Hints:
By secondary structure, the chain is an alpha+beta fold. The chain has helices at 10-15, 50-55, 81-87, 91-95, and strands at 2-8, 21-24, 32-42, 66-78, 104-119, 126-128. The chain has a six-stranded mixed β-sheet with strand order 2-5-4-3-1-6.
Amino acid sequence: MKVLSLQEPWASLIKEKVKCIETRSWKTNYRGEIYIHASQKKVSKNYSNIDRLLGLLSNEDFKYGYIIAKCNLKDCIYMSEEFINETRKSENEFICGVYSVGRYAWILDDIQVLDEPILAKGKLGIWNYDINL
Length: 133
């Protein structure tokens, strides 16, 4: 299965369907089912929007080091000024990402919480996890 690791609270923001656009500096040609992994690395409490982001979650029971959700990577869009301005209309979505011309918006849909989180060591990029391990 394909997996993408994210720091918390961003992984949980996807899991709770608050965040449906993952912003990246690189594009991907992959489309299809992808699992969301909450990395073990913790974000600094000094991160500028951390309190606002945490306020968007129903709880902060983070599962560091676990695959916590699955979704469909529907599209990867190059960020233009027009795209950024359109996304800005959704304040919650906008504060959950880094929007600037030249970056990429990974569009996620069909987000589902896993009944049982899967312990896994994260990796950079889109990586493969063998569910039979």
